[in-house]
Design a protein that fits this description.
This protein has helices at residues 40-47, 69-75, 91-96, 107-119, 135-148, 165-180, 192-198, 216-219, 222-229; strands spanning 2-11, 14-24, 29-33, 54-59, 62-63, 76-79, 153-157, 184-188, 201-206, 209-214, 231-234, 237-240. By secondary structure, the protein is of the alpha/beta class. It has a domain at 2-81 and 152-240: P-loop containing nucleotide triphosphate hydrolases (Rossmann fold, 3-Layer(aba) Sandwich), CATH 3.40.50. The strands form three sheets. It has a six-stranded mixed sheet, with helices on both faces. The protein binds adenosine-5'-triphosphate. Residues 11-12, 14, 16, 34, 36-42 line the site of adenosine-5'-triphosphate (ATP). Residues 2-232 form the ABC transporter domain.
């Protein structure tokens, strides 16, 4: 479980997050949503210790800064936004980097890597050089690397952005299955329909503030959709309030 109390983050006099308090229970699939620039990535980066902060973050009741970074890397894995990979390595070797915090010693690591490739459906790509892959194939490779960490908690920034509709559904179904098996997954999504359909609860941010945390019906209430996104939910889906 992750507990956040009165969290504020500023970088170079710019306020990224303002007085956020929330609880993220273990074993749940959480969608972190909000408009561009709302603070979603900033919150994820703060949870893995990449930003200085005011307030309290506790992982299983232990303050974040009391957990040594090596142990933290085994417990929490972060997949950043974007799919650029500069090194001409094979897909299998990129996925193997997920084992780095554990050292790469055992046959067990090989089966974990094989499982991660299988889980995201890219076994056939394992010998390809990543710099030759399509954007979606690279995104799946990075996701497999994240799964290969076997961390209890996965923080995943916009994994569906470059995926076709079928792969988006497949990836969300993988997240659902992993959380049903006990993992905690926080995933940044812009597709509110995917968030509504798959997540146990949503965290809605706007302008660095927490607007709502709870089930989709609460977080994406008509009031919040209008105030935060300028949207209303019509019979044909979301529409701009001023259209
Ligand atoms: N290091 C930084 N220095 C200054 N401003 C920053 C820094 N990092 C983020 N910001 C600003 O903080 C705000 C929140 O950024 P963040 O990346 O967390 O948004 P986001 O909700 O993930 O957005 P998006 O959906 O567009 O990816 C943005 O206005 C961004 O420009």
């Amino acid at each position: 479980m992750i507990t956040v109390q009165n969290l504020s983050v500023s970088v170079n006099n710019t306020v990224l997050l303002k007085n956020i308090s929330l609880e993220i229970p273990a074993g749940k699939l959480i969608a972190l949503v909000g408009p561009n620039g709302a603070g979603k990535t900033s919150l994820m980066k703060t949870l893995i210790g990449l930003h200085d902060f005011e307030g309290t973050i506790k992982i299983n009741s232990v303050p974040l800064d009391a957990v040594d970074p090596e142990h933290r890397a085994k417990k929490i894995a972060y997949m950043p936004q974007g799919t650029t990979i500069h090194w001409p390595m094979t897909v299998e070797n990129i996925v193997a980097l997920g084992r780095y915090p554990h050292g790469m010693t055992e046959q067990k690591d090989k089966s974990i890597i094989t499982d991660a490739l299988e889980t995201v459906g890219i076994t056939a790509l394992k010998d390809r050089i990543v710099t030759t892959l399509s954007g979606g194939e690279r995104a799946l490779t990075l996701l497999a690397r994240t799964l290969a960490t076997k961390a209890d908690c996965l923080l995943i920034d916009e994994p569906t952005a470059s995926l076709d509709p079928r792969h988006q559904l497949d990836v969300m179904a993988v997240f659902r299955r992993l959380t049903d098996q006990g993992k905690t997954i926080i995933v940044i999504l812009h597709d509110l329909h995917l968030a509504q359909r798959f997540a146990d609860r949503l965290i809605l941010l706007d302008q660095g503030r927490l607007i709502s945390s709870g089930p989709a019906s609460k977080a994406l209430s008509a009031h919040n959709l209008k105030q935060v996104y300028g949207l209303i939910e019509g019979t044909d889906g979301f529409e701009a309030v001023d259209s």
